[in-house]
Amino acid sequence: MEQGKKAKVLCLHGFRTSGNFLKKQISKWHPSIFQQFEMVFPDGIFPAGGKSEIEGIFPPPYFEWFQFNKEFTEYTNLDECISYLCDYMVKNGPFEGLLGFSQGATLSALLIGYQSQGKVLSDHPPIKFMVSISGSKFRDPSICTIAYKDPIKVKSVHFIGEKDWLKIPSEELASAFDDPLIIRHPQGHTVPRLVDASVEQLSEWSSNILEDLKNEYVTVPKVLDSDESTDVELAENNMVEQVAA
């Protein structure tokens, strides 16, 4: 991240919704939480292949990132989706973090896990943090043995709903991360409205992220003033004379 620019966050929407819908969902959170970040909301690469649960609530078009069976053990177009997102991140990034809801959160964790194991995004800086809302793990063993092989060591916050049908899978995803922050809420499968305590938790978390990013800036050496420059030249000359002698 260049100094003076906002840290970019790639935000991946849920199944058969859209980037604009996730943007609207996140807008219910206090604006101070992410005001220091540049939030990017792309659409999934495939048009919705069936009915969307937000029909009549939010206007189309709707998209999906990949397709899957009912047991969530077999996936279609996942490799194409991963390739697309990796290219997108390199061309439009770099992105410091990922945020995802449902399918988008599951996919975000996969990208970070794969990157940490050297499988993808070798030409993109390491992702440093993730916000997961109603996420879950992939269940295909060939994916799990790579993506979740080791604890994922990025800062992460996981929103888990008490009435969410993905509550247990969300717990399992959080356990794949090193020292995750878990924020629980009484709602279902949704981006929750945050109570004051949760706003404070998330604001503190995002502030710590920004502080970490600032500490990573390379300090540019100061320009020597004329007196210091003269002293350096004299020292160099003395060294040359000693060597010559």
Automatic annotation (TrEMBL):
Residues 5-195 form the Serine hydrolase domain. This is Serine hydrolase domain-containing protein. Pfam families: FSH1 (PF03959). Coiled coil: none annotated. The lineage of its organism: Eukaryota, Viridiplantae, Streptophyta, Embryophyta, Tracheophyta. It comes from the Eukaryota. InterPro entries: AB_hydrolase_fold, FSH-like_dom.
